[in-house]
Amino acid sequence: MTNNFCVNLTHSTDDADRATVGMVVANAAVASGKNTMVFLSSEGVRLAVKGVAAQIAEEGFQPMATLVQNFVAAGGVLWVCSPCFKKRSYTDSDLIEGATIVGGAKLVEFLSQDAASVSY
Question: Which phi and psi (to 5°) does residue 8 adopt?
Answer without folding.
Answer: -90, 115
